[in-house]
Amino acid sequence: MDQPITAEGIEQAISAFVSERVNTEVPADQDLFTSGLVSSMFAMELVVQLEQEFSVQILGDDLKRDNFRTIEAMTALVGRLLGAGQSADA
């Protein structure tokens, strides 16, 4: 019954969360830090949100700012983490 998670679905979920929190639509390639939309506190909320929504663990080198700079970067991070988890299950 569960549909596979696609990159598009991941991006849509992250975009919806970010847009709701900052009360504006955010392009997937917009730098959230230089635009002032994301504070360090909100960055930590993003980590928790991604971990909970996609059942991934973001640890060590994955916690670097570049992985959270844009919605595209977060989508790639989650996709990579989900791919690693799926291959471990195989």
Describe it.
By secondary structure, this protein is mostly helical. Helix 1 (7-22) packs across helix 3 (71-89). It contains 3 helices and no strands. Helix content is 56%, strand content 0%.
Quick rundown:
The chain is mostly helical. It has three helices and no strands. The protein starts with 6 loop residues before the first helix and ends with a helix.
- Total strands: the figure is 0
Q: pLDDT under 50 segments (min length 5)?
A: none
Helix content: 55-70%
Q: How far apart are the termini? A: 19 Å
Describe the main β-sheet briefly.
Answer: none
In one word, what is the shape?
A: globular
Q: State the helix count.
A: 3
- Broad structural category: mainly alpha
Q: What is the radius of gyration?
A: 13 Å
Percent range for β-strand residues: under 5%
Q: On the 0-100 scale, what is the average pLDDT?
A: 89
| SSE run | HHH
